[in-house]
Amino acid sequence: MKFASIILTIASICGALFTPGRIAAQDFYRGKTIRFVVAFSPGGTFDAYTRVIARHFGKHVPGNPTIVVENMTGAGGFIQANFMYQRAKPDGLTIGNNQGSFILQQILGAKGIEFDSRKFEYLGVPTEFHPVCALTKVSGYTNMERWFAAKEPVRLGGIGPGTGPSDIARAVKAALPNLPIRVVDGYKGAADVRLAADGGELAGFCAAWEGIKLLWRKSIDSGDVSVVLQVAPKKHAELPNVPLVIDYVKSDEAKQILKYAVQDVAVLQYLYFLPPATNKETVRLLRKSFLDTLKDGDFLAEMNKANLAVTPVGGEVIDGIVSGLFKLDTQMVGKLKGVLVP
């Protein structure tokens, strides 16, 4: 970490000299390329959101830079987060997209973390997420009654600690100890999990409803996939007949685990952020560009066509949520660690 600190100091000096804080933003970004680095594989929800945002983002940045998207997968998003912290230059030209639950994983002391999420500069999120669990018809578990009656653990796909599919499933397992669940980590992204479920390798997975319906729309419409459980505190308007996890939870401790492990971090799901030490003027400029993009009429039309929700949350709000997570008491941190960090 000493080496990383030296790099951050040097980067901070360079960032102050060569970012829009010292030069007119339009002159700085004209002819440049902004790179979005997505922590998960192509074809998933993170990739889908980012590629639509990227198609409209450039016109809301002074100088109209070129926008490209790259995918940097591995270790449940930690490889990308470590890259954004240690190697990405704080010059306003690299924007990360990752699951914000990596912040909670840092608090829990997960292995493989070489970043301090308090030092990232957050642009915001395009939408909050609504966590659910969906299972295939072939698996035989098309409702909660059948799931509770399963003779062996139901295999749910995961990406790794700190990601929605893994954390949601583990939190449900902890809150409902009589519900047979086995979390299978190691997939590169939700699209890969879906393929494994379609092939019978898994029974399904837990993730945002926004992502489930993007990946499995035809299968849901045909009845080949069923959303059997909502892990959010209240029902989604599109899922009125699907039960809430809280309907089955017995203890206050289980309710707290669900709250802190899943529900309170839901707003951080599709998180966009800049490297530490990015010039404050650059942060303000790109926060505005990000939110302006999410209000753009052409962008909204494309998102509507893709059936992707847009309920933006700005960077200042994200800062407050991150600060609050780092104030969790040690007893709750210990409980969450036992659940989410295998």
Structure description:
By secondary structure, the protein is an alpha/beta fold. It has 2 domains: 2-127 and 270-333, Bordetella uptake gene, domain 1 (D-Maltodextrin-Binding Protein, domain 2), CATH 3.40.190; 131-263, D-Maltodextrin-Binding Protein, domain 2 (3-Layer(aba) Sandwich). The protein has 14 helices and 11 strands. A 6-stranded mixed beta sheet has the order 2-1-3-10-4-11, sandwiched between helices. It has a 3-stranded antiparallel beta sheet with strand order 8-5-9. 49% of the residues are buried.
The residue ranges in which pLDDT falls below 50 over 5 or more consecutive positions are 6-22
Question: How much helix, percentage-wise, in residues?
Answer: 40-55%
> What portion of the residues fall into strands of 2 or more residues?
15-25%
Number of strands: 11
Question: What order do the helices and strands come in, and which of them pair?
Answer:
Elements: H1 2-18, H2 25-29, E1 33-38, H3 45-57, E2 66-71, H4 78-86, E3 94-98, H5 102-108, E4 121-125, E5 131-136, H6 144-148, E6 154-157, H7 164-175, E7 181-184, H8 190-198, E8 204-208, H9 209-222, E9 225-230, H10 252-263, E10 271-274, H11 280-295, H12 297-305, E11 313-314, H13 315-325, H14 330-340
Parallel strand pairs: 1-2, 1-3, 6-7
Antiparallel strand pairs: 3-10, 4-10, 4-11, 5-8, 5-9
Helix pairs in contact: 3-12, 7-10, 10-14
At a glance:
The protein has 342 residues and is α/β, with parallel strands linked by helices. The chain has 14 helices and 11 strands. The strands form 3 sheets. It has a 6-stranded mixed sheet with strand order 2-1-3-10-4-11, with helices on both faces.
